[in-house]
Amino acid sequence: MKIRLFEKQDAEKIAQLFHETVREINIHDYSKAQVQAWAPDNIHFRDWENRCSNRFTYVADDKGAIAGFGELEPNGHIDCFYCHKNYQRCGVGSQIYQAVETKALELGLKHLTTEASITAKTFFQRMGFSVIKEQEVSCRGEVFINYLMQKNL
Length: 153
Hints:
Layout: E1 2-5, H1 11-24, H2 32-38, H3 45-53, E2 56-62, E3 65-72, E4 77-83, H4 92-106, E5 111-117, H5 118-126, E6 130-139, E7 142-152
Parallel strand pairs: 4-5
Antiparallel strand pairs: 1-2, 2-3, 3-4, 5-7, 6-7
Helix pairs in contact: 1-3
């Protein structure tokens, strides 16, 4: 497993990984309507190419298969952070997170923040994040519970 920065040719695989993970993993914590709003069928990989190119996006590359990815914004916000459904609970997320935190320290950031899903909350707690507050967010007409979380570096 190699953790590396995003390359443009990763965009389609990342879009697919996001869609499948939300639909098959997050469905355990959210309703069918919620996951369909979160990860709609009409995903455009060009949107993912632009998004991932404008952040520090780390990819877990398992001999060409994308096992996961995580995005760090220059202000210390971790936006998308997903592991492929076949790579859950085997250390991939921890490896991606270590790359993200290392970059944050290089940038001189004092803390990291994220809005973790119900599904991801325990992972981020294991990485040292604390819940600041539970919140409701809306996306494409659906309301979701997630958690504003922070870690001091």
